[in-house]
Amino acid sequence: MTAPEQFSAVQRSSASQWWVLSARQLRTAVRGGEAVTALIAPVVFTVCFYVPLQKVISMFGNGVENFGQFLMPLIALQAIAFTAISVAFLAATDAVDGINTRFASMPISPGVPLGSRVATGMSKCSVSSAVALGCGHAIGFRFSGTAVDTAMFLVVLVLIGLALILGADIIGTASKSPEATTQSLILPQLVLGMLSSGFAPLEQFPTWVQPFVRNQPVSQFTTALRDLADGTATLSTMTPTALWLFALLAICIPLSLLLNTRRS
């Protein structure tokens, strides 16, 4: 067999291994209830955020004309972050159960297990995002921009999901403690969500915390998504999101590859 033929055979083998592992993990997710969680999470976030806050708005107001339109990007981000936590749990479980060590001793390309976890996570993120959009439609969210704006909205959601999944996989693989990993990730997710302009307009926060609220990634992401949905996105509103995504992916991709392709 010539060198090109050998390389082609390795490519086919890696693709087959990735497909088998991804399908196995998806079946496990369905049997284990993770797929159901991906469906339910956006509904829970919608009910927990929209229903009580809508009552507050109706009584006191907060300067938001359509609260469903305002809140939906945060619901989508929270659902994606919640899905990423399940990826961290899976990575930590593989590490503590010795799955990674077992794969390292087998003729499996070192990036295949990582690729399968990312594919599984992105599949669940896609489900959560679709349900979040449906929940958003139910509370008044609409796309009023161009088709390009809508496509960019979806692209940004995908990139955010990829960054969060890679970051969660790194944390899970490094920690090797599924329970501790899950507990340590839930609190930051909720805190960043609550202290963001996706939860309430910036002016509603105390002056001393506004710089943090304005500049943290969840606020920048929700602002960009909201503007894309409304068709009012500008270079100034999209640049911070692009910089955050570039920084996260520039850190997570090489670190994740390094951590997951080491041979024991």
Low-confidence stretches: 1-11
Radius of gyration: 20 Å
Average predicted confidence as pLDDT: 82
| Number of alpha- plus pi-helical segments | 10
Shape: elongated
Major sheet characteristics? none
Q: What's the β-strand tally? A: 0
What is the straight-line distance between the termini? 30 Å
Give the DSSP E fraction (strand runs of 2 or more residues): under 5%
Structural class of the secondary elements? mainly alpha
Could you estimate the helical fraction of the residues in percent? over 70%
Helix/strand order, N-terminal first = HHHHHHHHHH
Structure description:
By secondary structure, the chain is mostly helical. The protein is 80% helix and 0% strand. The longest helix has 30 residues, at 3-32. The radius of gyration is 20 Å and the shape is elongated. The two termini are 30 Å apart.
List keywords for this structure.
10 helices, 80% helix, mainly alpha, 264 residues
Task: Produce the secondary structure layout.
Elements lengths: L2 H30 L1 H27 L6 H30 L2 H6 L7 H27 L8 H29 L2 H17 L15 H6 L1 H14 L4 H26 L4
Helix pairs in contact: 1-5, 2-3, 2-5, 3-5, 3-6, 3-7, 3-9, 5-6, 6-7, 6-9, 6-10, 9-10
Précis, in short:
By secondary structure, the chain is mainly alpha-helical.
